[in-house]
Amino acid sequence: MKQCIAIWVRRFRTMVRYRLLLLTSVPIVITLLALIALTMYWTVMYTWQNALMNARADLAVAHHSMALLQKEQRMRLGSLTESYPFQTLLREDQSQMIDWVKQQAVEYDLDFVVIHPASALGEFPKANRQLLQKGQEQTFFERLTANELDYLHSDLPARAQIPLLNENTLVSDGLISRSLIPIFNQYGDLQWIVDGGILLNNSTQLVDRIRDLVYASDTLPEGSLGTVTLFMSDIRVSTNVPLDSSQLNGRAVGTRVSDDVKESVLKLGEMWVDRAFVYDDWYVSAYEPLKDYNGNIIGMLYTGYLEWPMIKIYLTNIVELGVGILMVLLISGVVVYRGARDLFRPIEKMHQVVSAIQLGLDRRIGSLDLTRGHELQILGKQFDTMLDQLHQRNEAIKQASAQLEDKVQRRTQSLSEKTEELEQHIKLLNQARTQLVSNEKLAALGELTAGIAHEINNPTAVILGNVELMQFELGDETERVSEELEAIHEQIDRIRNITRSLLQYSRQGGVQDEVTWQHLNPIIEESLTLVRSGTKKFDIEIHTDLNARCCVEVNRHQMLQVLVNLQMNGIHAMDDRGVLRVCTDDWLDESGQTIGAMVKVIDHGCGISEDQIERIFNPFYTTRRSGTGLGLSVSQGIVSGFGGEIVVDSEIGKGSIFTVYLPEKANSDNMVVVDLEKMGC
């Protein structure tokens, strides 16, 4: 068996006729399978949707049938009130009406008939009282206890009892369809209330009658079974669902509905249409709630029919369709195979000749026993001619190949050397171009910086002069605003220092500024004062934890610039709202010795990706539209000038931590001069 399979696999892989058979059959198979899939899909969808629509329509018919039966019940009760004996007793002897009315239940095909005097109106619910006083007849469903049933008729409690299967419990409540008709005297006053109806518990004739109306003959698939059920709460009190669906024995009275239906219909008050497991088999089912006079759900009305006969018909159709498709495949396969066999014999002979030539044998195709002028015969002759020419050219190629190998080897070695040299030149050219672009930007920035610094100095001098004049004029009154004036002088000094630095940046060389021993915590507090002043309109909270004790050698103004830059970056990263944390601590080495101080600026913003972290300290790189891309570059240059570094730790969506490490003793080479190129300006 395995050898046979292997042979056919090899034939399909190697022989043209079988490959042609496969190539022609595969599209047919795929098309047919697609048609089967689409047919099955649409059939299932249409059949199932149609089944659900039928179930919904059946439930609507059952609902209207119940409404008609209730209307018929009310009409029978109305006939009683309009009968000659009733009217005679009403006019002549009302004392006998109560007993006489109770005896008329059987004659009018009702389970109970009772007449109440107008004084008993208070015993009815408010909704019923209002309608009775308006003279409106009413029919509704109601659930009554055994005592309430006994009040209506002494036989009703016994007839209403339903034993629950598999629960050893007896249900004594009854579900009734009740009609009330008010009787008024000649003065228009309510005199009597005629009360009558039917008991729905164990009412087999009622559900069978509704079933015959809903499921007429020949409306269901052969072997299917239409059923109707009345529920009191979740208990079947009247049904023609059999206890054994295969034998159609008994009635499933006293069984409960499934939890899914109970949840949807009884609790949520929704109509439920779907397949459901009804006692012992699957049915295409529809349920709707039954409500009493107050709109409370007291039961359900159900219609459904067996699912399996419908599925059986569907599967039969699928099998018939599959058999038809297989027959089409077999017939088309035979036709293709016979046509391919006669067509590809000459091609197989050509293939044998080609295989022999590949093995080094000198073979030719020759005659193919085909009609003169046949395309394959002409092809065979042309192939033989080509083989002759190929043999001649092979000899010439062998002679030229030896010479060509030497030339190729020499040229390849030379080309490899030139390629390496060219790649190195391209790399140097790219570096030079990048450096040139950066230098051009820096040159332009230097000119702008010098102009801006000169322009800032003039209004700063005016501000300083006016402040000093105010102090002179106010005299002793300046004590009240001494702190504010002090802050103005400090900020004017800071503006002068910044503009002086900018002017020095624009000149040839570096920034000359004083580096002194400083404690970080006061600089942090000063930077936070500036940041808070500039972010009052933002929803920002700034928390500090300043534990650094070590003093470090830094330039106070440059360090203030670095801290303000990092804090503002953190605020912008949080979209100008959130909590910004600033912490300081001593920088310890592995042995626990203090080697400097460190500052952490922690935000809870959007975070920085790994590829951006590698570029954020490059000049002119920014992710903000309003940014210049110089803040972090300048800050890194300043910190590097003190011999320190800035380290970034970030996580997307959670925030970033910028840590500034400052050594206790500034780097002697960079202590005084901070080169512009290292600062990234």
UniProtKB/TrEMBL annotation:
<feature type="domain" description="HAMP">
    <location>
        <begin position="341"/>
        <end position="395"/>
    </location>
</feature>
<dbReference type="InterPro" id="IPR003660">
    <property type="entry name" value="HAMP_dom"/>
</dbReference>
<dbReference type="Pfam" id="PF02518">
    <property type="entry name" value="HATPase_c"/>
</dbReference>
<dbReference type="InterPro" id="IPR033463">
    <property type="entry name" value="sCache_3"/>
</dbReference>
<keyword id="KW-0418">Kinase</keyword>
<keyword id="KW-0597">Phosphoprotein</keyword>
<feature type="coiled-coil region">
    <location>
        <begin position="387"/>
        <end position="435"/>
    </location>
</feature>
<dbReference type="InterPro" id="IPR003661">
    <property type="entry name" value="HisK_dim/P_dom"/>
</dbReference>
<dbReference type="InterPro" id="IPR036097">
    <property type="entry name" value="HisK_dim/P_sf"/>
</dbReference>
<feature type="transmembrane region" description="Helical">
    <location>
        <begin position="20"/>
        <end position="44"/>
    </location>
</feature>
<feature type="transmembrane region" description="Helical">
    <location>
        <begin position="321"/>
        <end position="340"/>
    </location>
</feature>
<dbReference type="Pfam" id="PF17202">
    <property type="entry name" value="sCache_3_3"/>
</dbReference>
<keyword id="KW-0812">Transmembrane</keyword>
<feature type="domain" description="Histidine kinase">
    <location>
        <begin position="451"/>
        <end position="666"/>
    </location>
</feature>
<dbReference type="InterPro" id="IPR036890">
    <property type="entry name" value="HATPase_C_sf"/>
</dbReference>
<keyword id="KW-1003">Cell membrane</keyword>
<dbReference type="InterPro" id="IPR003594">
    <property type="entry name" value="HATPase_dom"/>
</dbReference>
<dbReference type="Pfam" id="PF00512">
    <property type="entry name" value="HisKA"/>
</dbReference>
<dbReference type="InterPro" id="IPR004358">
    <property type="entry name" value="Sig_transdc_His_kin-like_C"/>
</dbReference>
<keyword id="KW-0808">Transferase</keyword>
<keyword id="KW-1133">Transmembrane helix</keyword>
<keyword id="KW-0175">Coiled coil</keyword>
<protein>
    <recommendedName>
        <fullName>histidine kinase</fullName>
        <ecNumber>2.7.13.3</ecNumber>
    </recommendedName>
</protein>
<dbReference type="InterPro" id="IPR029151">
    <property type="entry name" value="Sensor-like_sf"/>
</dbReference>
<keyword id="KW-0472">Membrane</keyword>
<dbReference type="InterPro" id="IPR005467">
    <property type="entry name" value="His_kinase_dom"/>
</dbReference>
